[in-house]
Amino acid sequence: MIGYLIRRIIQAIVVVFGVTLLVFLLAHIIPGGAARAALGQRATEVQIRDFNRVNGYDLPIWHQFWDYCRGLILHFNLGYSYKRNQGVSSLIQENLPKTLVLVGISTLFAVLVAVPLGVLQVVRRNKPIDYVLTGASFVGYSMPAFLLGELLILYFAVDLGWFSVDAPQANSVWGIVSDPRGLVLPVFSLAAITIASFSRYMRSSMMEAMTQDYVRTARAKGASSRRVLFRHALRNALIPIITLLGLSIPGIVGGALITETVFNFPGMGLLTYRAAIDNDVPLLLGTTFVAALATVAGSLLADIFYAIVDPRVRYA
Questions:
Q1: Would you state the pLDDT for residue 309?
Q2: Are the beta carbons of 236 and 311 closer than 8 angstroms?
Q3: Which of 76, 101, 73, 97 is nearest to 88 (CA)?
Q4: Which 8-state DSSP code applies to residue 228?
Q5: Which of 66, 180, 234, 307 has its CA at a distance of 20 to 30 angstroms from the CA of residue 314?
Q6: Beta bridge pairs of residue 87
Q7: What is the CA 5 to chain-centroid distance, rounded?
Q8: For the residues 100-120, what does the mean pLDDT come to?
Q9: How far apart (Å, rounded) are the C-alpha atoms in residues 296 and 14?
Q10: Could you give the 3-state DSSP secondary structure of residue 81?
Q11: How far is Cα 168 from Cα 56, in angstroms, rounded to an integer?
Q12: What is the pLDDT of residues 224-258, one digit of tens each?
């Protein structure tokens, strides 16, 4: 177990190093260089030379990469946004907690809804409710996030007036949480696709668990159907969902980018969208780096939790 964890951590470090190198190289292959991106197309050659000298872009590439890694490790320095006249790290620190709230609430809501739906489909397998939920899952899974968000706004905010068109615009996490009415549509929009995916996985996992030998043994000993379902099958069927949660982080983060843009939610997704619109390359690369770190961390945590909760797993 310890050896497995050490190997997975080493693999995660290698992946993070690769992501760091990729982000660094992307910042240096911008047409015109970082100086042109920061100063604009009308900058003179003298201004560009002065910019490169002040920021160290005239140094050898290996020296620049060493300085970049040292600043990243010691100070989490992701560069400077010249469009916003603010450090990229400080911008991310301001917006990341709000995205974590949105993603956390939507993921928790998705799990709480998807698990009972998957169990219900197994209990009522090949019944009308199973077909209806399966069709709804396919529709939800194939629904584009921006289209779902727009439809929710048109119906529940514009036509019925139940919720606001915009998400909470507070600058703090407490301000975001204290406006639950504004959070309903963004949370549901982000969770709907996740529910569709998780419920399908839960149905398949539950059906596989119901065919295992320990389920037949429990039935042979006279255990009730409810006890077999919830005490034996469900506990083991939930194990793959743990891995799925970690591996779904990239998709959830990508969906948050679209959802935050549609609902004008002041988080990482909207920050990334505006950075792309403004051609703010340092900020765009910084948010990309943080999203990649979240993906690596999610995968690592999924593997660790899988090894902890499933004693049958044996790693060579």
A1: 67
A2: no
A3: 76
A4: I
A5: 234
A6: 80
A7: 23
A8: 86
A9: 10
A10: strand
A11: 41
A12: 777 877 777 777 777 777 777 776 776 666 767 88
d(CA 216, CA 225): 11
* 76-107 core/surface letters (b: 16 or more CB in 10 A; e: else): ebbbbbbbbeebbbebbebbbebbebbbebbb
Q: Can you tell me the distance from the alpha carbon of 89 to that of 94, in angstroms, rounded to the nearest whole number? A: 9
Question: Which residue in this structure is represented by tokens 């090949």?
Answer: 126
User: DSSP code of 157?
Assistant: I
For each of the domains in the chain, give its residue range(s) and CATH number, in order of start: 2-89 (no CATH), 95-309 (1.10.3720.10)
109 token code pair? 């809501």
Do the beta carbons of residue 249 and residue 294 sit within 8 Å?
Answer: yes
Residue of 182, 147, 190, 145 whose CA lies nearest to 166: 182
Would you say how long the chain is, in residues? 316
Return the number of other C-beta atoms located less than 10 Å from residue 204's C-beta.
15
Which segments of 40-87 does DSSP mark as H helices, in order? 45-55, 61-75
> Token digits for 118?
């998957």
pTM higher than the cut 0.85 = no
| 281/263 Cα distance (integer angstroms) | 24
CB-based contact 259:190 (threshold 8 Å): yes
Burial track 14-33 (b if 16+ CB lie within 10 A, e otherwise):
ebeeebbeebbeebeebeeb
